Amino acid sequence: MKKRLLSFLVVGGIGFLADAGVLLSFLRWTDVDPFTARLVAIAIALQVTWLLNRNFTFEKSTRNAAVEGMRYGGVGIASNILNYLVYSGLLVFLPEIRPIVALTLGSATATVFAYTGYAKLVFGR
């Protein structure tokens, strides 16, 4: 259990870096607003973390990869809605906050929800 949680946190850190990298790249080199940029960043980070969690954290489930991917996407979308709501709320209600700080707080909020969902609904036996 501890090994799996540690692996989940490492994969989450990699996902966070993918999320932050895409977000900051969009904000620096395009005219895309921080809300739209974050949606793209979340989608890319979700794909990265599915592949890593599937292969290193939880191991492949006995389900077909497409079914597993859809379940992962469902949990990921739910946790990222929570993540995005925290991120957006912070940007709207605290306009002086930097997007990377809002991203960090949103991601931290969604971590427990995501781990539980992935462990029970996606990769659980």
Describe the overall structure.
The structure is a single chain. This protein has four helices and no strands. It is mainly alpha-helical and 125 residues long.
Short description:
Helix content is 84%, strand content 0%.
Keywords:
125 residues; mainly alpha; 4 helices
Give the fraction of residues assigned to helices.
over 70%
The backbone outline, from C-alpha atoms, is: elongated
Discrete helix count: 4
Mean pLDDT across the residues is: 90
Low-confidence stretches: none
Q: Quickly give the structural class.
A: mainly alpha
What is the chain-wise order of helices and strands?
Answer: HHHH
Strand content: under 5%
Rounded to the nearest angstrom, the radius of gyration is 15 Å
* Tally of separate domains: 1
Distance between the termini: 14 Å
Q: What's the main sheet like?
A: none
How many runs of DSSP E, i.e. beta strands? 0
Topology diagram in text:
Layout: H1 2-29, H2 34-57, H3 65-93, H4 99-122
Helix pairs in contact: 1-2, 1-4, 2-3, 3-4
